[in-house]
């Protein structure tokens, strides 16, 4: 019987990947793994999920991915692909129906450059809540995050499109979305106050079928992040 419960150290390795699908190694609340789940769902690719206990990783998982990180994909041929942008680009190439990346080399390069810029924003989603919990003044960091959000808002204003690279969702939207999905529970929503286009984008993303299929409620995220703050992440929360 498939289980969503996570596999920890000492667990038996799962069997071979069935021929008609992929296997995703994930953690239910990981925003990086959610990127891959969004792409899998958007493209309608059949896959099974094996969730990994990230504090007590099984030895067999470390053999597959020496970095010990999720997401990782495994094909029926035993090929392993890891790192979220790499898994997502692989899926877009291996399953060319409903392409999420542009066909032109420059278009692809533009999305990669944008992702590189956004990767400099991601640490704020972690360090501001952590500093706040420690009773530190976070006003300086919040001002920096607001600046980064303002630049994203400016991009949308200049493009005059609903999403970051057009009027339909593309890869870059899925790469950024998981962090915005958690913005309220991380108490960072006020950083969007002066970015109307970015707010509109976030509202539109909530209507995307792949987003609906992969998201959790604010209450669930709150309970998970509380368990993280207490030093005992509950990866099997609500299971």
TrEMBL record:
Q: Which reaction does it catalyse?
A: L-dehydroascorbate + 2 glutathione = glutathione disulfide + L-ascorbate; RX + glutathione = an S-substituted glutathione + a halide anion + H(+); methylarsonate + 2 glutathione + H(+) = methylarsonous acid + glutathione disulfide + H2O
According to the entry, every stretch annotated as the GST N-terminal domain falls at 20-99
Pfam families per the record? Answer: GST_C_3, GST_N_3
InterPro entries xrefs? Glutathione-S-Trfase_C-like, Glutathione-S-Trfase_C_sf, Glutathione_S-Trfase, Glutathione_S-Trfase_N, GST_C, GST_omega, GST_Omega/HSP26, Omega/Tau-like
* Any one biological process term the GO annotation gives: glutathione metabolic process
Q: Record's PANTHER family?
A: GLUTATHIONE S-TRANSFERASE OMEGA, PTHR43968
The entry's family comment says: Belongs to the GST superfamily. Omega family.
Full protein name? Glutathione S-transferase omega
Q: Which organism is it from?
A: Fundulus heteroclitus
